[in-house]
Amino acid sequence: ILDSFNDLYTSYVIFCILLMSVVILVISIFNAEFYAVVPSIPCSRLALIGKIIHPQQVIHSVVHAVMGMLVAWCAAVMTKGKFQFLAVPCMPSESLDDAVPQMCLNEYHLFFLLSGAFMGYSYSLLYLINNMNYLPFPIIQQYKYLRFRRSLPLLVKHSCVESLYFVRNFCVAYYFFGYIPKVWISTTMDLHIDSKLHPLDTLTGLLDLSLVYHAWLCGVFLLITWYIAWLLFKIYATETHHFPVQPTFAEETDQCLPKILNSNPPLIIKFLALQDLMLLSQYSPVRRQEVFSLSQPGGHPHNWTAISRECLSLLSDLTQRLITQQDAAAANGRAKQPAGELKVSPQTPGAVVTEDMSSQSQRSNIVPRASMSSLVKSSLMPLKTSPGSDVGSPFSSPALNCKTGILDVNSPWHGSVQSPHVMRRGPKLWTSGSDLQMNGSHHESFPVLSAARVGSEAVQPSFIYTWLQNKQEQIKNFLSKRVLIMYFFSKHPEASIQAVFSDAQMHIWALEGLSHLVAASFTEDQFGVVQTTLPAILNTLLTLQEVVDRHFKLPHVSSKSPRISGRLVDTSYKTLRFALRASLKTALYRITTVFGEHLNAVQVSAEHKKRLQQFLEYKE
Amino acid sequence: AGCTIRAFAWHPHTSKFAVALLDDSIRVYNSNSATIPSLKHRLQRNVAAMAWKPLCASILAVACQSCVLVWHLDPTSLSTRPSSGCAQVLSYPGHSPVTSLAWAPSGELLLSASPVDTAMLVWDVSTENCVQLQWFGGGGVTYLAWSPDGSKVLAATPSAVFRVWEAQMWTCERWPTIKGRCQTGCWSPDGSRLLFTVLGESVIYSLSFSEYRGEMQGQVGGSKTASIVADLSETTFETLYGEERIGGEVHSMVWDPTGERLAVIIRGQADVPGSQTVIAVFRTRNSPVFELLPCGFLRGERGAQPQLIAFHPCFKKGALLTVCWSTGKISHVPFFFVSAHVPRASPSRSPVMASASVREQPLFSEL
After folding, report:
1. What is the pLDDT of residues A329-354, one digit of tens each?
2. pLDDT recorded at residue A94
3. Averaged pLDDT score across all residues of chain A
4. Which of B58, B107, B134 has its CB closest to that of A150?
5. Final residue of a domain: which of A238, A271, A296?
6. pTM for the predicted model, two decimal places
7. Which of A210, A215, B99, B338 has a CA-to-CA distance to A582 between 20 and 30 Å?
8. Is the pLDDT of residue A84 over 80?
9. Dist. CA B326–CA B319, nearest whole Å
């Protein structure tokens, strides 16, 4: 033991420790640079491959491989023994009388270094595939130390198991490709291969247990330190931050909650602000009072207006997005509407949606492809009646009519829906194909669309446009028959559903915060600031609930993958949609339970009144 | 033992309750409809507890031998046999048998506990994520009770210690009892007082907590010691029918949601002949001072022992106590009184605390 303590003080070890801290620092920098609160979910295999060969990811992998090699070198040096040096003196067997020691390649050392590099690279690859850059927010709040301590046993166990897999993979890789670096290093550094020892890239060489054990141990050490750095980063980044609702000092005005919610901060700040809103609405009567307070000279409820407006616009955004998705699914893979058309004005989302609700209830049977979306969109965009357009209802926008009209009649795919070839593949076949050509045809369709919209008399599109569409469909048709192309381009349905709901955590918090505030306002709101916005809130919530319910009827949406408990990497982003649906229902019930029969006095449309009655009777 | 009813749970907002029977099926009775759905699942064995999700129409969590089953029932359906597909299975390795459940009053989290697992699980049911709350010492958890205001959770262990957790940052306070384990406990409606009993003692203890204000993060705020508020040792009562000996250990205790009535099952000594298990009802008040006054006794038919008691969560005219007897009968006992908290429109007449009408009126007698 004294020996090992003496060893600790040698300069070698101190240098190694310094080097390790540099490594950890670099890893932490990478963690901080690459984090994301909204996971990016690749929807098709091509997207996944694209993610892997993205330059950012390449840099990530290379740096991690280099770091891995450094760690392995430090470990090799510190163990001393046979791993210590790259080149060791050895005696050539033939020339006995020569007795000049030559430098031979220490293959064990090389094995170690390469295993470190391989582990670094594998870690980086797993980081990408498992979306480890995603920051999951915890379901309950806990002190940081407790959360860290809770995750530690699982982390250690996971590192041990993973290191075993890495060592196994590396042995296989070294067996096949080990001679390349060996030859390269020995030629560049003018080292000889020691012919007395077994070369390591044979089966007998690789079955050296002490070598495998040392490599595994090095891997465990590497993974534990890197995972701890990642875990600590996650814990610190998702810590709740206290945003003041009412700024007490002038310099704090930029940091106060309403302002942050209304401006466009970086996504993590918005997430933290919404999380703080959720917590204050549940646990903090003092801060709730600040939210319900009126401004001093004018008596305006600025705080409440800002907060409720932001939450409602978030929810309306989500409603729009889901409607778009449902449109795409209903139209069976037509090109998605460009997002620019659907900008929801944040000023009065409630009022607009009310108006279109009533129009929809009267007209829902007329439009053959009766999606509420077209009518919602129509009321949100400037209303224009196009003469002679009989495809949809007179209130649908001409652009929408144009598009559906064209694609309906002219697409050769329209007829081939019945072909078993296409049916076998499922309904999402063309979404990616059209996205593929989207880059090319986007520019064409955009100006044509805007021209059609602006022109407003061009119900019949230009001839060139039709001809281009024709050609597009023919190419798509041809490509779809090539299995290999479809293998890469076909969209994984589960992944595309997850992608729609990838930032649903924001909406869940907005729902909870808003409903808790409204429920608390029943007893705590002295000035009645919440009552004036109640119709808008109820409208938004009920509309969203309808859309979400309808969304869950689509294929694959309500299926849940079996959960594996006890994994280190958080995959909660995969089930965010269920959490959204549950918290939406709970939010509505919270409001109806607190207000009870008083809700009948609130001005909502007749259809919403019926649904509210269902909620009041606990029949939903 | 000897009872065909395993567990009983009232729905928090409507007149609906669920009864778990000995054959591991659950029946849901609704006062508004004649259909009685019967819930069966192959994993539903040895049901120990049930709890309806608050702020929801009909989601029922069932504590089973190996997992927690969460049934998502359709409130308007008329089917008498919902399919097993409606049940969500929440299982965690090492967490079985699950014997107690508690939903957060705000409806988002479900706590599940098992006497052999030292960690309590906090489930987010819709994403099936769980967080383990572990502590050391004391063994598993035998009894869970969440305070109605959502701020604290009582977790009793098989050893002579129980814990009170606060539900914001999930820190806990440890309370060692002197003699035995905490048998049962119940919270006042505003979460400021905990009444509990200890196995082997025939007293009711009270523990008060400072008012939850939200700024005290991470503090449970319990007072230093618990005080005894009621002594339930055996006494003799002179009644019309002769001498009655009533008193002993407490088996279970429930407090009605208005905080006005406390019902306690007192188990007489088994070896003394003539002692019986009765339900004692107390009139209580929590503010401005805590008050506990005896109100009356409830007894069933000859030979029927009360096994489970529960108050209806939203009885408008006072309190409704439901008793499940060992004979398999369920009876509902109404207490009609004017609650001290509800403002009345007639100021001229001071509200008289009506004496508890202790009648047995089987509204939903079954089996």
Report:
1. 887 654 443 333 333 333 343 343 33
2. 47
3. 74
4. B134
5. A238
6. 0.77
7. B99
8. no
9. 23
Tokens of B197: 């009993």
Q: Across the interface, do A140 and B122 touch by the CB < 8 Å criterion?
A: yes
From B125, which residue of chain A is nearest by alpha-carbon distance?
Answer: A579
Q: Which of A193, A213, A238 is a domain's end point?
A: A238
Structural domains counted in chain A = 2
Over 80: is that where the pLDDT of A356 sits?
Answer: no
Residue B329 CA to its chain's centroid (Å)? 19
Domain carrying residue A231: 1-89+102-238
Q: Which residues of A touch B134 (CB under 8 A)?
A: 150
Q: Do the beta carbons of residue B75 and residue B68 sit within 8 Å?
A: no
For residue B88, what is the nearest residue in chain A, using CA coordinates? Answer: A560
Residue B206 sits at the chain A interface (C-beta within 8 Å): no
ipTM: 0.87
Nearest to A33 by CA among A273, A233, A265: A233
Chain A nearest-CA distance from B315, in A, is 15
Same domain, yes or no, for A166 and A140? Answer: yes
DSSP A277-322: HHHHHHH-HHHHHHHTPPPTTT---HHHHHHHHHHHHHHHHHHHHH
* Residue A141 to residue A147: CA distance in whole angstroms: 9
Mutation target to probe the A interface, by most A beta carbons within 10 A, among B13, B112, B124 is B124
Report the pLDDT value the prediction gives residue B39, as an integer from 0 to 100: 92
User: Under a CB-based contact definition with an 8 Å cutoff, are residues A19 and A74 in contact?
Assistant: yes
User: Are the Cβ atoms of A142 and B124 closer than 8 angstroms?
Assistant: no
Do the Cβ atoms of A257 and A292 come closer than 8 Å? no
Answer for the pair A412, A477: CB distance below 8 angstroms, yes or no.
yes
Record: contact A575-B128, CB cut-off 8 A: yes
Which helix (H) or strand (E) element contains residue B324? Answer: strand B318-325
pLDDT average, residue stretch A610-620 = 88
Total number of domains constituting chain B? 1
Asked if residue B49 belongs to a domain, the reply is no
pLDDT at A593: 92
Domain span at B277: 189-210+224-337
Q: How many CB pairs under 8 A join A and B?
A: 90
Residue B57 Cα, gap to closest chain A Cα (Å) = 5
Nearest to B93 among A283, A565, A576 (CB): A565
Burial annotation A26-64 (CB, 10 A radius, 16+ → b, else e): bbeebbeeebebbbebbbbebbbeeeeeeeebeebbebb
Q: Helix A576-595 and helix A534-551: axis angle, to 10°?
A: 140
Q: What is the pLDDT of residues A202-255, one digit of tens each?
A: 666 667 788 888 889 889 988 999 999 989 988 988 888 888 888 777 777 778
